[in-house]
Amino acid sequence: MIPFIFKRIINLIPILLGTSIITFLLIHLVPGDPAEAYLRLSQIPPTDEAAAHIRKELGLDKPLYVQYFIWLLDAFQLDFGESFITGDPVFEEAIYYLWPTLQLTLAAIVLTLIISVPVGILSAVYKDRLFDQVSRILAYVGASMPSFWLGFLLIYFFSFKLGLFPSGSRGTFVHIVLPAVTMCLVYTFTFTRLLRSGILEFMNQPYVMYARSRGLKERVVIGKHVLKNASQPFITAFSISIGNMLAGTVIAENVFAWPGIGRYFVSAIVNRDFPAIQFCVLLMTIIFVLINLIVDIIYAYLDPRIRLKGDQLK
Amino acid sequence: MSTEQLLSIKNLNIYLQEHGSDTRNQIIHNVSFDLEKGKVLGIVGGSGSGKTLTSLSVLSLLHDKFSVTGSIHFNGADLLQLPERKIRKIRGKEIALIPQNPMASFNPIISIGEHMVESMRSHQKLTRKIAKELAIYYLEKMNFADPSDLISQYPFQLSGGMLQRVLIAITLSLQPSLIIADEPTTALDKVTEDHILHQLEIMKEEYDTSMLLVSHDFHVVSRLADEVAVIHNGMLVEKGSIVNVFRQPNHSYTKQLIDASIRLKREKP
Amino acid sequence: MIKEIMNNKLLVFSGAIIVLMAFVAVFAPYLAPHDPNLTNLAVRLQGPSKDFLLGTDHQGRDILSRLIYGARVSIGSSVLVVAVTMVISIVIGTISGYKGGRIDYFFMRFCDIIMAFPGLVLILAFVGIMGPGLFNLILSIILIQWVTYARIIRGMVLSYKEQNFVTAAKMLGSSNVKIITRHLLPGIIPQIIVLATLDIGTVLLHIAGFSFLGLGIQPPTAEWGAMLNDSRQFLRSHPSLMIYPGMMIFIVVMAFNLFGDKLRDIFDRK
Ligand SMILES: Nc1ncnc2c1ncn2[C@@H]1O[C@H](COP(=O)(O)OP(=O)(O)OP(=O)(O)O)[C@@H](O)[C@H]1O
Ligand SMILES: [Mg+2]
């Protein structure tokens, strides 16, 4: 298990390097001069002289690969440059905003699992009955619902009309309820269907029939022989969706004025704050890659074929 | 008379209706046979003749796209009328199935030992530790060299023949009164086949277990069975004592099957 | 039987919504009672009236007209994205699947890398790097989406390639282009239509979402997502500003999703 994890971590390095190179290149190749953005944000008149001066100061006059190496060297010391807007190190700013986002995502994930797993199992067990039909309709609704609209509806009814939850910003536990619900509802019913079809697929496996033939209780048959196998496609989809959820926080944070990295990123995009944009992209990659790693470890834990692979061949 | 019968199948029909389809096909036609306690009944037929479907219907294990009519009396009760809850108590404990395809019958992510332990523990009050020791004991009976190592292995680490032997060990450990063995020796080499048939013989002698022995090979059946039933295209074409059927087959299909198995035996080195 | 009719009913129903919306989008200038961008602070935030059937927004613009023009932008840009995506995917997917070999290998590795990341994350990153605006948004979505579809189409082509009549056509000496256009493509077109229909809903949600964030369509252009963003300050006092555009997005996306799904059911049965 340990060598397995170690190997996976080593594999991450080229991915991160690749991402940083691509982001770096794209930012510098795309129209829109960072020096001009800097001047605009610092409210200095963008004359040619001023631009040349700033280019020199920011190191933008050097060849691209030199710039990249300088950036990389700095990155190793956790120096990702200063925000054009605030002048503060983007690393510190981003980390400051990251925590609330992780909190929100985590709440949404937990909520999604709490709802979708039992509903998925029940939909499979009561296939084509009323329960299943309702969950099918909800899946359509969930897949077609714009999350920002859902957020507004929730605010309007639960906050303004009923006064049950606050309409925005961060604070006590109740503040997280509406944004988390907004983020989770979109995914929950899709997952429900996914889990349902996974279960139904594995229900017909010969080993499930054999488990039944030995007189195991239905609860054991489903829980042990079906669910553990059926959970793998579910986990794959889930890991992808966690990434999408993280990106989706952008919207929830915007609707509920949640002070997270999503809002930070959006304002950086709007203002063309290049160091902040670059670091946010990198951060998203790192988080997503880490999620993948965790998922792979869960896989290996669930499936001995992955854990013990290589025993037989070579 | 009928009280001596352990298993008595009467007018069994099995229909297939695929999900969302309007047509219903009959696959098993009016099959009837009896099995006396302590005896072995061979069910012989070619591929696709309906042997597996018939066997699975006894334990109500068919997918719900199949519908079954007729009666299957076991120890006096009609299995087709029993509620799922009661059937579950019979499965494994009274009637144990040795499924046709050992490679597909094990859950790939559950260890061999766990397969055995969970089976025993679902019918008897046993601690995990004792169940594990019993598992090792039964695996030893199946001539495994190192059972205590085997129980922590996973199905994909074993060969098909080994898995077949584990299936029989599981069946042994459940000590049922009736075993339904679906092609227990297909796709095995002759030495392993011999060994497995020998184990089944021991089970029959030692524990007085009755058996439905399903096979396409007359030769295999003739070794163990007292009686034989021949199925062709979902219909029972012939039944009788093994000696009679072997000597004087009435149906041309039975003759073909016997000829084929004799030819096979001759070709054997 | 009942199921079949139900399926068809939903198919007809969702199809009708789509046709209606397409009609509205195309003939927006004739249907809209007002100029969608005409501001008139004297009539701001009014309720429904004879003049303004759905009322006016915070700048006194007619909401109905903005919704009608919004259909044009939202649906129009989604269809554009999906159309371009599909053309790229069909070309590359077919070449990769049909030719096989090294081209196919490199294509698949490329897909593995791109598809390892969730789509939304990539689109966000691309828009982030290229900057806000409808053009950049559309470009980003196309750049990300085509990979997934090219791969699916490659799979279809592969499974079709093995079929007898393709081999026969090859042996009869048909040119590759002929085989692809006469035999392969007609066979996979139904599946591609299903894919495209289902995708329009997703793309529309993306475009509306990014416009809502201010990263897509820029004000004052009437677009449903951007309208929702405008409605934010008046959520408590004038919830209808938020209800209408959201409802439009929801209905249109739902119609495309339903239509695609039911279409797939029908093609699958054949
Ligand atoms: N899951 C299934 N779905 C549809 N038809 C089936 C299914 N299983 C079996 N059948 C049909 O039922 C018939 C009998 O199948 P069965 O598996 O009982 O044959 P068998 O005698 O066990 O054959 P074999 O010796 O190959 O195992 C076959 O002709 C097959 O077409
Ligand atoms: Mg069979």
UniProtKB/TrEMBL annotation, chain A:
Residues 98-299 form the ABC transmembrane type-1 domain. The lineage of its organism: Bacteria, Bacillati, Bacillota, Bacilli, Bacillales. The complex is composed of two ATP-binding proteins (NikD and NikE), two transmembrane proteins (NikB and NikC) and a solute-binding protein (NikA). It is a multi-pass membrane protein. Keywords: Cell membrane, Ion transport, Membrane, Nickel, Nickel transport, Transmembrane, Transmembrane helix, Transport. One of its GO terms (cellular component) is plasma membrane. It comes from the Bacteria. GO terms for molecular function: nickel cation transmembrane transporter activity. The chain crosses the membrane at residues 12-30, 104-125, 137-160, 172-195, 234-256, 276-302. Belongs to the binding-protein-dependent transport system permease family. OppBC subfamily. It is found in: Cell membrane. This is Nickel import system permease protein NikB. Its main location: membrane. PROSITE patterns: ABC_TM1 (PS50928).
From TrEMBL, chain B:
GO terms for cellular component: plasma membrane. It comes from the Bacteria. Signal peptide: none annotated. Its main location: membrane. The keyword Nucleotide-binding applies. Pfam families: ABC_tran. It is a peripheral membrane protein. GO terms for molecular function: ATP binding; ATP hydrolysis activity. The keyword Membrane applies. SUPFAM superfamilies: P-loop containing nucleoside triphosphate hydrolases. It is found in: Cell membrane. It comes from Gracilibacillus oryzae. Residues 9-258 form the ABC transporter domain. This is ABC transporter ATP-binding protein. Keywords: ATP-binding, Cell membrane, Membrane, Nucleotide-binding, Transport. Belongs to the ABC transporter superfamily. InterPro entries: AAA+_ATPase, ABC_Ni/Peptide_Import, ABC_transporter-like_ATP-bd, ABC_transporter-like_CS, P-loop_NTPase.
Automatic annotation (TrEMBL), chain C:
The chain crosses the membrane at residues 12-32, 75-98, 110-129, 192-217, 241-260. It is found in: Cell membrane. Its main location: membrane. InterPro entries: ABC_transport_permease, BP-dependent_transpt_permease, MetI-like, MetI-like_sf, Nickel_NikC, OppC_N. Keywords: Cell membrane, Membrane, Transmembrane, Transmembrane helix, Transport. Residues 75-260 form the ABC transmembrane type-1 domain. GO terms for cellular component: plasma membrane. It holds the Pfam family OppC_N. The keyword Transport applies. It is a multi-pass membrane protein. One of its GO terms (molecular function) is nickel cation transmembrane transporter activity. NCBIfam families: nickel_nikC, Opp2C, PRK10417.1. Belongs to the binding-protein-dependent transport system permease family. OppBC subfamily. PANTHER family: D,D-DIPEPTIDE TRANSPORT SYSTEM PERMEASE PROTEIN DDPC-RELATED, OLIGOPEPTIDE TRANSPORT SYSTEM PERMEASE PROTEIN APPC. This is Nickel ABC transporter permease subunit NikC. The lineage of its organism: Bacteria, Bacillati, Bacillota, Bacilli, Bacillales. The gene is nikC.
